[in-house]
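Priority: medium. Attachment 1 of 2:
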């Protein structure tokens, strides 16, 4: 996720106060990807240094607004295709793959317990996201999109865990 571009996007409708950036981002992502204050201020300083954001004193508050270069950068980012996550490193996947591939780690019961524990954790997380989405206002389309994406990923993980479980049923590792 590009914090830099996300912050530019939050300024698309007009100048914002730094605290407002954090608050708006946290609301948009329903708190799934929280930004810390230092990250916001550091990113704003870099954006200002790079000529993408300008500081505006307005109503005795320091606000930040997009420059023409900042809007152009934001538009380029919005139009750019994001690479699919197919090659992302996934700790759970590598943990299970290693346990299956290594004779010293092969233990079907241990793997089944891991799969069941992970299934439970994913189910609980999916239920939490469902509750969060149910509390959204009809106007929170951005937050709904973030929650839909997170829910879809968890649902896919649950399907994958079922496939792992099926493989363990036919696997010739230690019982």
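Attachment 2 of 2:
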């Amino acid at each position: 996720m590009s914090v830099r571009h996300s912050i530019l996007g939050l300024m698309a409708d007009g100048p914002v106060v730094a605290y407002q950036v954090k608050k708006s981002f946290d609301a948009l992502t329903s708190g799934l990807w929280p930004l810390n204050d230092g990250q916001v201020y550091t990113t704003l300083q870099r954006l200002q240094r790079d000529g993408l954001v300008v500081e505006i004193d307005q109503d005795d508050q320091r606000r930040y607004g997009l420059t023409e270069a900042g809007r152009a950068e934001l538009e380029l980012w919005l139009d750019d295709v994001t690479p699919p996550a197919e090659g992302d490193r996934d700790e759970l996947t590598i943990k299970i793959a290693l346990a299956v591939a290594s004779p010293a780690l092969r233990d079907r019961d241990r793997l089944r317990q891991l799969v069941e524990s992970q299934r439970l954790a994913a189910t609980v997380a999916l239920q939490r996201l469902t509750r969060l989405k149910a509390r959204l206002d009809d106007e929170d389309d951005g937050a709904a999109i973030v929650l839909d994406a997170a829910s879809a990923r968890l649902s896919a993980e649950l399907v994958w865990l079922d496939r792992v479980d099926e493989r363990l049923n036919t696997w010739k590792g230690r019982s």
